Structure formats: C-alpha cells, structure tokens
Amino acid sequence: EFDPQNLANTLWSLASLQVRSPPVLEALTTTALTQIRGMQPSALASTAWAFATLRQDRTLLLEAIAEAALPSLTDASASTAWRPRQLSNIAWSLSALAFHHRPLLGAISTAAQNAMAHFSNRE
Fold first, then answer.
1. pLDDT, tens digit, 9 for 90 and up, residues 48-106
2. Is 98 helix (H, G, I), strand (E, B) or coil?
3. How far apart are CA 123 and CA 121, in angstroms?
4. Residue 5: C-alpha distances to residues 8, 35, 45, 76 (Å)
5. For helices 41-53 and 4-16, what crossing angle results, to 10°?
6. What Å distances lie between residue 40 and 1, 13, 27, 86, CA to CA?
C-alpha cells in the first residue's frame, strides 16, 4: 500500500519514463483520490505534474488537488509550506492540462509573488 508521498513518487517516476498504461494510471488515480487529503504540497505538485507530463486529463483528480492545495496556499502561516519549485510545477501542470480553477490560480499567484525572492531562474 502506498502512502501519499510514495504514491506521488511513483507517479513522478512513471511520468519521467513516459509510461502511459491506462490500467496502471487508472488504479493510481483512484488511489490518489482516496489519499489526497494526506498529501503535502510536494506530493500535490508532483501528482499534478505527473499527469500533466503524461497529458492525462484527470479533471476529478485535478479538482481534488485544487481543494486540497487551497487551504495551505491561502493560509498565510501555512503558505510557506509551498516551495518555489512546487508552485511552478503545479502552475505549469494546470496550464498544460488547460485546467482553469480560478481560486487555485489566484492562490498560486499570491504565494508565488510572496516567495519571489526565493525563486531560481529555473522556476
């Protein structure tokens, strides 16, 4: 059984290798949906990135990621949990999949502006 970070790591690995096995991705999507509330920012960003890299539009999963990410992005004391790479990865993922979730995009924008001094030229 996967914990949320191991699940995200597995998805990242599959995306890096361009593995597009429908049964595997469907099973991992189902698992991700059951574990989404336990995911930290790194796991949320990696999961979104993996499906975007594989060009797998999983609207239900993206909606769940958005709902899970919003509290930590909008709470000023928790927004520092999001590193610049995670912010850029989740923003890219939403764009790549043309997933327009205004509250999430606004929260990412605000968090990125607040963290701008910590971004490198790759983010």
1. 999 999 999 999 999 999 999 999 998 876 667 898 899 999 999 999 999 999 999 99
2. coil
3. 6
4. 5, 10, 11, 24
5. 30
6. 18, 18, 21, 11
